[in-house]
Design a protein that fits this description.
By secondary structure, this protein is mainly beta. The chain has nine helices and 52 strands. 55% of the residues are buried.
Length: 1018
């Protein structure tokens, strides 16, 4: 890997200061920019570095410091793993549909959070061209280590040439051919027989295997003016899973729930104003005559427990099958007049994610079991040129195109769900999602089934001009995005939500059960999204920038300005409609390009999005090896099309059924089924109420999300080839996307006596996408790196930081907290630690040459000589989570926070996987920290107030190269992941009032694994 430094006199001092990845352990001279190559970030002031991941290496270079860069163990086959060792970077919140392992991600977890910004707020480049998939804002083509030459991360100070983003800028440069033909072929293998047993495994380990193979080659073509590089990879893996679930017992399936009190939902009575009581089922047993046929069939889908516990009582060991193929091709032409680069990358992936329960479709994406088959393909192509018309002026022209195709279906697709479950109105896409509080979820994970195709066209012109005092660059960029598909928030199969509310005594702890509510046949809410025709979203991005790199006395300054024009999305046939926000004539009738409404269905945008960016580097007087750096960046962001395109998913172009009756009065039963979706034109309140549809509303404002980022760093050289960096950093996100049910009723018994301000008399859900979210991030870090001893390269970094926000990303469904505010009229009450906040983070890494034996025989000395070892260690504090109540005494369709009367944490000696924190709601418990508030009163507990388990992980590698015949050599490499075999526990069950409250069911990463690789290089 390569770290490019701005001044030769400071190479040694700045070597470690910019060494933010443990793999960046060597230096090479700075290379000039060429077509398809981003600027070398490290030559700019601020926190911007380039590292060179392990790719195609010459055989002779394996024993050089450059060869040591390939030594750091990597458990995933992508260079983004190196970014995880940046102390200011975390790898996304745990779980959730945007950061997790659901159908959208096809099993890849490429999210990263930088400077406290969301994982959907980063921008990616591939050879200087945008590499952003617009639906989720991840990379179109996840990079291949074999084809990667340089990976660059810019945060804090992001050059003006980058945008749009509010997080980090990640740029990847692919490899090009050299003047001599060289190449490599490799085979990488792992097997469960070589792995340790997971903490939650039974007597037998689930079988796993992985087979990765590929080749790469590069060299000159015609007269050395053309150079070619190509690589291909195949990956076939079978991951054995251990999925722990909670299933109902045999007695519960018969309706017996003793000793837990179960109440009859049909007996609710108002004994005095706003006070309700239910009568208990005799002996806490639901009579068989009260269990409808659909409930019996659903109960039969749950297997009998196979573990001796009241919760987490079922273990299933399915296999997760993932196949991927990729091909990378690049050709470069170099001449005195013109340089050309052409590149094409293709990748396809198939993920067969198993069911979390045997013999039926059930899902738990957090445990990699989504019960869905997902296929994806991605393609990216680039044509770039550069030329000079004077010694000081260089022109660059880039054009690129990329597309992705993603299709997912439930494993039980084709099943006649209505016939199988005796529930009218279901289809053949698989059984619906049946979500029971505290139990395993039946049905494939949302949003399957769906089909989605995205594409991006890009054209960019830029130029650079160097003078004795200045280094100017300027340019303009046009991007055209498109998304076509039927992906929705709630699956077309339907969602049935069951909670303990209907079988509990209102306001009484320890009563009710979600499975008992299912047996009575009354879901708390029914949802379903159906898109009648595929939407065809279109979006433009226009931008221009100017940047100057110059010296002002002893100070080096990098100043830039970027202007962005980011209009809202349109639909090819103008099939967009917005809620009109008119209190006097409420309706969903702001149709795009009709009756004076703009093409964006009333949405606006900021036309004055000027983003200044400034960085400086100041050598301190009489301290030639000490530099003070600082930077400021403002960046605007477009946001993912997942929620920006929601106006195409409104009636009459879609049906968004939402049947909700409250926590007290019963709604529709399972036997009544689910209404057939119809393309109704909802033009007034009465029609909307009759259809019982939810609607989306987009805020008609002129805001565009943006972030402000600052940092200040002191870099100095120490004795013994060490370098030290002390830094402080901060950021602020403004006008971030947020979503809430703007028509949520006030807490009260039904029928509601209070008006739904301001949308009364409309009774449905209004999912309002606003721009009122905000975030704050601040922290400090210290880095120490270099070569403290001969043959040893080492790196250490510690960071303390706090990431705070008041709104999670829309539609993210994070495991740590609910998506909206408990009290929607005070959304700022959600301000708390972000779900990806890691307060303390320590990273260590080292690469060393092992000593050779001196007194052994020739054969033994030849066998034991030349070995190298590498290790990386990460320790960080736990992620936050929010305790909530299993029931909703607010009766408003949201969620209910408890009252907090204590800390809730347990001493480390008392924590276990069965009880990570104290979930007791019993006032007689002297250690209880939470209580149930009175009915219809909001709880005062905060968000993300408790922390999950910490992470300690050590990976190691041992490798050596053997020269066979010139120029052929081989490399044998052994990697051990989670060497200490520490279980990395996931977040505990955060819902209070359940038997499983506070318990942990799985780990976030496997136990110790061994992987072997054989590589031939020439």
């Amino acid at each position: 890997m390569t770290v490019v430094l701005p001044r030769a006199g400071l190479r040694t001092a700045l070597f470690a200061a910019v060494l933010s990845s443990a793999v960046a352990l060597s230096q090479t001279p700075q290379q000039p920019d060429s077509p398809g190559r981003p600027p070398a970030f490290a030559s700019r002031p601020g926190m911007s570095v380039c590292v060179k991941p392990c790719g195609l290496l010459h055989a002779a270079s394996d024993q050089t410091p450059a060869g040591a860069l390939c030594a750091i163990p990597s458990s995933s086959n992508d260079p983004f793993t190196a970014l995880g060792l940046f102390s200011e970077v975390t790898r996304g919140a745990e779980g959730g549909e945007l950061e997790g392992y659901g159908p959208y991600s096809t099993g890849l977890r490429l999210a990263l959070n930088s400077y406290g910004q969301r994982s959907q707020a980063n921008t990616f480049q591939l050879d200087g061209a945008p590499n952003n998939e617009p639906w989720l804002r991840g990379p179109v083509i996840p990079p291949s280590p074999e084809a990667t030459e340089c990976l660059c991360l810019a945060s804090g100070h992001v050059p003006a040439s980058f945008g749009p983003a509010t997080g980090a800028a990640v740029a990847l440069r692919t490899r090009s051919g050299s003047d001599r033909w060289h190449g490599a072929a490799f085979y990488r293998h792992g097997n469960s027989a070589l792995n340790a047993r997971n903490f939650f495994d039974g007597a037998d380990k689930p079988p796993s295997s992985s087979h990765q193979s590929g080749f790469s080659a590069g060299g000159p073509l015609r007269s050395h003016s053309w150079h070619l590089f190509t690589s291909a990879e195949l990956d076939r893996s079978r991951q054995g899973l251990t999925v722990i679930s909670t299933v109902p017992s045999t007695l519960q399936k018969l309706g017996e729930f003793a000793p837990r009190p179960i109440y009859d939902p049909l007996t609710i009575q108002e004994i005095r104003p706003v006070e309700f009581l239910r009568q208990p089922f005799p002996a806490n047993r639901i009579p068989r005559s009260r269990i409808p046929e659909p409930a019996r069939r659903l109960a039969a889908l749950f297997p009998a427990p196979n573990l001796p516990a009241d919760f987490h009582n079922f273990r299933h060991t399915p296999s997760r099958l993932a196949n991927s193929d990729r091909l990378d091709l690049r050709a470069d032409h170099t001449s005195a007049a013109l340089n050309l680069t052409t590149r094409a990358n293709y990748m396809r992936r198939s993920l067969n994610s198993p069911s979390s329960l045997p013999n039926t479709a059930a899902s738990n994406p957090a445990q990699h079991a989504s019960a869905a088959l997902t296929r994806s393909s991605a393609f990216s192509a680039l044509l770039a040129a550069s030329w000079r018309n004077s010694p000081m002026l260089v022109h660059f022209l880039r054009a690129s195109h990329s597309f992705t195709s993603l299709r997912s279906s439930a494993l039980d697709s084709g099943l006649d769900s209505s016939a199988a479950l005796a529930i009218p109105g279901l289809g053949f896409d698989g059984i619906p999602v049946f979500r029971l509080t505290g139990y395993a979820q039946l049905g494939a994970a949302a949003p399957a089934p769906f089909h989605l195709r995205t594409s991006t066209w890009h054209l960019e012109y830029s130029a650079s001009r160097n003078t004795p005092r200045h280094s100017w660059s300027f340019g303009a960029q046009i991007l055209r995005h498109a998304a076509r598909g039927n992906a929705v928030e709630w699956p077309a199969r339907g969602v049935f939500l069951f909670t303990p509310d209907y079988t509990s005594q209102p306001g009484v702890d320890g009563t009710g059960d979600a499975f008992a509510s299912l047996l009575t046949g009354y879901p708390a809410e029914i949802r379903r999204d159906v898109q009648f025709e595929p939407y065809r979203l279109r979006g433009w991005e226009w931008s221009a920038f100017v940047q100057d790199h110059f010296r002002l006395g002893p100070v080096t300054i990098d100043a830039g300005l970027r202007y962005s024009l980011l209009p809202p999305l349109t639909e090819a046939a103008d099939r967009l409609v917005n809620f009109n926000h008119d209190r006097e004539a409420l309706a969903v009738d702001w149709f795009a390009a009709h009756n004076g409404v703009n093409r964006y269905a009333g949405a606006g945008y900021n036309r004055r999005a000027f983003a200044p960016r400034l960085g400086f580097a100041l050598p301190l007087p009489r301290r030639s090896a000490t530099v003070l750096r600082g930077s400021f960046s403002q960046m605007f962001d477009t946001g993912p099309y997942l929620f920006r395109g929601l106006l195409a998913r409104n009636p009459p172009f879609a049906s968004r059924l939402d049947l909700f009756a409250g926590s007290l009065q019963l709604g529709p039963s399972l036997a009544a089924g689910i209404p057939t979706p119809e393309p109704l034109a909802l033009l007034d309140v009465s029609a909307m109420n009759r259809a019982q549809n939810a609607v989306y509303a987009f805020e008609p404002s002129t805001y565009t999300p943006y972030s402000l980022q600052w940092d200040l760093r002191l870099e100095t050289r120490l004795p013994r080839s060490l370098a030290l960096e002390i830094a402080g950093m901060a950021s602020m996100g403004v006008h971030l996307y947020s979503m809430l049910n703007a028509n949520q009723p006030y807490p009260a018994p039904t029928p509601y006596a209070w008006r739904r301000h301001p949308y009364d008399p409309f009774l449905g859900r209004i999912d309002h996408l606003g721009l009122g979210g905000g975030s704050t991030y601040y922290g400090g870090q210290i880095r120490l790196s270099g070569s403290p001893a001969a043959r040893l390269h080492a790196f250490a970094s510690y960071r303390y930081a706090k990431a705070i926000d008041d709104a999670p990303p829309p539609m993210s469904n994070q495991r740590s907290r609910s998506p909206g505010a408990q009290y929607i009229y005070h959304p700022r009450s959600m301000r708390a630690a972000s779900s990806f906040d890691v307060t303390h983070r320590l990273t260590l890494a080292a690469v060393c040459d092992l000593p050779s034996p001196n007194r052994s025989g020739f054969a033994l000395r030849a066998l034991l000589s030349g070995w190298r070892a590498a290790a990386s260690f990460v320790a960080q504090s736990g992620l936050p989570f929010t305790p909530e109540l299993a029931v909703n005494g607010l009766n408003n369709g949201g969620f209910w926070l408890p009252n907090r009367v204590g800390k809730g944490t347990l001493p480390s000696s008392q924590r276990s996987v069965a009880r990570w924190f104290n979930p007791s709601l019993d006032p007689s418990d002297p250690t209880h920290a939470f209580e149930t508030p009175p009915l219809y009163q909001y709880g005062n507990s905060g968000y993300n107030i408790l922390r999950g388990p910490r992470l300690f992980n050590l990976d190691a590698a041992l490798f050596r190269s053997f020269r066979l015949t010139a120029p052929l050599s081989s490399t044998l490499r052994l990697e051990l992941f989670n060497l200490l075999n520490r279980p990395h526990f996931a977040l505990p069950e955060r819902i209070l009032g359940l038997p499983s409250s506070g318990a942990i069911s799985h780990t976030t990463s496997p136990a110790r694994q061994l992987q072997a690789e054989l590589r031939l290089s020439w």
